[in-house]
Amino acid sequence: MVETIKLGGMVLEFLHSKEDTAGSLDMFKMTVLPNARMPVPHYHESWEETVYGLSGTLTFQVGDEDIAVGPGQSVFIQRGVVHGFRNDTQEPATCLSVLTPGVLGPGYFREVAALISAGAPPDPAKIKDIMLRYGLVPVAPGASTKG
Question: Hey, what's the torsion of the CAs at 126, 127, 131, 137, to 10 degrees?
């Protein structure tokens, strides 16, 4: 069953998670609204991420490189490499993300979405705590590009 999670300027549709793939992968469709910049630069401790563009164009900052991912294009992000993404266009952009192995699941996104939807601006320390509990390590903008 597909689970939809709204997270600020982003909508995720979880297609598969670690629970239904015996930990093999997490797979979700992600739509990013125009001019959205998400998330904070970070790296993953325990998984790789492959992103395949479906519509629109997202710009991924992977290490020191900006990579535009449009329909039919992809980017592979190794564990330990600092990255983030943004939609600099005036159109929504949609991609398919696959995390291998499947160790994240939708729980991280649910927790961050609940914090964001609470009304007040989210506490950066709480977001950092959630990220670290799920194996995402936030990095200050402009810091080292390797985790």
Answer: -100
